[in-house]
Amino acid sequence: MGLGMDKCCCFIPLRLGTFIIALWFFVIYLFDAVTGFLGSNAVTIYSGQSAKPWYYIGLLLTVIICVGGFFGIIGSLFASRKFAKTFSIVAWVSCVLSIIKFLISLILMVVHRDDLVQSCRRSGFVGFDNSQVPLTPAILTENEYYSPVRYPGTLNAHATSEEDCQGIIKTFLIAYGVIIFIVMLIQIYFAKVVTNYSSRLRNGARHHRLHDQQIKDFEESRYHMSTVY
Prior knowledge:
The chain is mainly α and 229 residues long. The chain has helices spanning 14-38, 42-50, 52-78, 81-111, 113-123, 162-228; strands at residues 7-8, 12-13.
């Protein structure tokens, strides 16, 4: 199976590792989808503001990856060769889809960074305590004397200064770029682990069929020998 691939992360059995990986794809992307729908996911909201169709496309890709994780959970729980093989394919597809999703989101946010700053000035940075449903970019006056005014219970309740927003958005984009790079490397490794587990199940099944055939051939040879003597 290759160096370091008899186990997941060098010490976790492949079956348990596959279950954990499937749980990763299911839980992480379920969380991503739910927070996106609720408007508390900064990546989903800001990239959706930059290109509204991408909001729905990104959520669709997230749901597909989540469903793939569910298939993997079933396959690893029951050691099903069929589900394990399906998940090995799904894991690689999920890696590709997630790379597409994250990179396009990052590119959209970088290109439309000024719009993100404007939205932050109007409504504050997106978060669990500041969910935002509107996907239209903010349009604010360019008057140098303009400053955000907070009104409790309204869209402006978390309004922030332009200077603060520029710093927040810059930090957010850098952190997001680093995180998705690390996550992609982890998921590619995970996909290799799942593929190895699927191969082990398939090879194990072949071994059992060969063993049964050898027993059958041995019994038949014994029968023929007894008839000769």
